[in-house]
Amino acid sequence: MPRNREVRYVELGIGSALQYWNEIVMPAVKVFNAAASPATAVVASILTWHVHEWAWADRNGNPTTHDRIAYEAFRDNLIEQCEELGWVRDIADASKHRALGRKGEVASVKRTKAPKFIAGLGMIGTIVDGELGVELTDGSVYPLSAMFETITKFWSGRLRLA
């Protein structure tokens, strides 16, 4: 964003990072946990990634991110403390841009456990019991449910202090 651009906060009825976490992020993570799919993984990742911007605003009096050095140090420090935040960042960015324009750790999101198909009406059915994992560039694979659980624990202690 050009430094001379005016930033205008939009009132969404959400007053803090904690409220954003509880009312926006956690419901999306619960939907993912109940029905893991690429769609629910992407939505939960995008919303989870943006918590850091809400936390930044809470801690700094709703400033813009024009102070790129301080903001980037804040963001990078969070990722150092919780590497899974970097993974949701990669998923969120790749879902928007189709690719990453920076070095990332995520190579793919893929099924790590075969799903079961339960027949429904006509050609409509439901996929259940499938597990999605995040494959990193080093070849390791982690369940996305565990990734979201780790991030939830990470933010739980920090957001209550805000």
Task: Please outline what is shown here.
With 162 residues, the chain is α+β, with helices and mostly antiparallel strands. 52% of the residues lie in helices and 15% in strands. A 3-stranded antiparallel sheet has the order 1-4-5. Strands 2-3 form a two-stranded antiparallel ribbon.
Annotate the secondary structure layout.
Blueprint: H1 17-34, H2 38-49, H3 51-59, H4 68-81, H5 83-97, E1 106-113, E2 116-119, E3 125-128, E4 131-136, E5 141-143, H6 144-159
Antiparallel strand pairs: 1-4, 2-3, 4-5
Write up what this structure looks like.
With 162 residues, the protein is α+β, with helices and mostly antiparallel strands. The chain has a domain at 17-99 and 145-159. The chain is built from six helices and five strands; from the N terminus they run H-H-H-H-H-E-E-E-E-E-H. Strand 2 and strand 3 (125-128) form a beta hairpin. It has a three-stranded antiparallel beta sheet with strand order 1-4-5. Strands 2-3 form a two-stranded antiparallel sheet. The model has no long low-confidence stretch (mean pLDDT 80). The longest helix is centred in the first third of the chain and has 18 residues, at 17-34. 52% of the residues lie in helices and 15% in strands.
